Predict the 3D structure of the following.
Amino acid sequence: MLADMASNRAGRAVTIHTVAERAGVHASTVSRALRRDPAGAPAAVRRIHALAEELGYRPTLAGASLRTGQSHAVGVLVHRLTDVVQAMTFEAIDRAAVEAGYQAMVATTEDDPERQRRRADLLLSRGVDGLIVADAHLDGGYVDWLASRGVPVVLVIRGLPGHVSVTVDDRLAGRLVGGHLADLGHRNVAVLAGLAWSSASTERAAGAVAALRDRGVGPGDDLVVPCGLDVTSGHTAMGRLLDEHPDLTAVFAVNDFMALGAMIALREHGLEPGRDVAVVGYNDVDIAPAAELTTVRCPHDQMGSIALRQLLDLVQGRSAHSIRLSPELVVRASSGPPRTG
Amino acid sequence: MLADMASNRAGRAVTIHTVAERAGVHASTVSRALRRDPAGAPAAVRRIHALAEELGYRPTLAGASLRTGQSHAVGVLVHRLTDVVQAMTFEAIDRAAVEAGYQAMVATTEDDPERQRRRADLLLSRGVDGLIVADAHLDGGYVDWLASRGVPVVLVIRGLPGHVSVTVDDRLAGRLVGGHLADLGHRNVAVLAGLAWSSASTERAAGAVAALRDRGVGPGDDLVVPCGLDVTSGHTAMGRLLDEHPDLTAVFAVNDFMALGAMIALREHGLEPGRDVAVVGYNDVDIAPAAELTTVRCPHDQMGSIALRQLLDLVQGRSAHSIRLSPELVVRASSGPPRTG
DNA sequence: ATGAAAGCGCTAACAA
DNA sequence: TTGTTAGCGCTTTCAT
């Protein structure tokens, strides 16, 4: 019996015809019996199922895909999988996909427009029914191109006007952070603003700046610095900032890794995060509690699964609409009031 | 022209026949002209390429796959993509795959045997030509099952006797760490030993223990504790260890995240990593330099690309063999000598 | 309820 | 060098 199963790969493949022959019915009958909503005599259906199981039959999805024009696969484009937020989001998408009988195929682009187009193209060649884009650029970029080709697309994390997206209300979150720091009494706040082309980065930064200005704290443009999304970038940017603005009392980094890098830079300057300079991050990654980092918690799992649902709606001809989820400020020891004197 | 390209999806699909018709040749001629190593009159080949480009032709890989029995896709099984080491390795595999004209499809299993089998099965249904397994269990598990079905399989990171694997010499690395700590004068060393079913974890731990015993430092079995691979697990395990063994002077965690968690636990106990208790991790993840963490650097990119090569060798009927790469000890401030007195 | 037949897009053996 | 033909595994009318 085990040998039979092995034959699926090793020997001749077990196809729908193999099952049909053994069952003494026509291949089309097997096909019908094996679908989600089987048609046919209940007894026959059961017999065919048992036989398929026994023979170790696995459907060759390429055949079905070719015939139906649907691959039951979706593509996911992320800038890096080593960015744990993108990884979490993809995992959530993947879980939801498997549950819905779909396969999620991921591709990394490093935010490079050329690779974005190329990988999207490859995915399309693979026959994916739609695309989830987690690395959209504010200039439209390949997303506009995809949409103009009629490809079902849903954005996640980073939004873009005119396209269906599943995001957190980053601007509101930024306001929460800005308000928090202002309320603590900070008047000299810097923002590590992330990537200029990412709505997630720019909205968070803009929200914080707006909230600060509302309360009369006006961080000059020289205190809002773009930077990469990882520890090293945050470290470097913060080091430079401290050299130029030794009077800083707080910093908001638009993601936790940058914040962690900033904390390291602070210590190198002899400053204790939370006591000498308040630090706030974004995402509440698993290391944030341990680092006592004040941050913004976002429902990445939800974002992923909702994005998949929305995409399937689009793929299956239903309508889909943008969704903005609520962020939550999580206050920890890294954000204290400014030192007096 | 853009409208033409859009027709690929929106309107009628652009197939090889569309191109053939417009070129005034037969479909098979187009097929031949478009392959990697084109056959046909150079002029005709160029013309067909130009036409294909103009029409926005994208091959429907399902068709080719059905015909040739090769999908030019490989599956990759990891336990979690949020584990940055697994993510790095997958990215390397993915890069190498794209370069070779393949698509890498990843699935996460959480080290759960049931999900391992299920996801492997799904991938196989998708027609992958082979599988790279980054989450192998020492009991054989689904890897044996796959191999017995004749599926080409290459293991990466975690090895398993009797299967082709691409790993780091974890035992040697463990020995380097053990030797390093012994040389510093540590006599009371604990090991956060990771997962019992992972060769990577067990080999690293065993290597360290062996090196320590060689030098007369005999960590008892109560000082070698299994634990999960993330920050939280390391944190918890270290906390418990410190409660039971307040006289510890050094700890080796078989990965950096556990080590980071351990450092946090130390600080909570009023101990300064590197000064009061030496800490060594494993992998040299991007945050390790900032944390001043002594660790072992492993060529994850190389492992990924080599694993893919090996798999393609297997898939294409050539032979493949296990490869063990060299680790490198990176000494930083987190591992100092024991405090005297 | 089941069988027959056709065809999705592609490639490979063979013929010209 | 190019065209012809056949068929990979599957689903889906249409007929029975």
In short: Chain A touches chain B through 53 residues (CB under 8 Å).
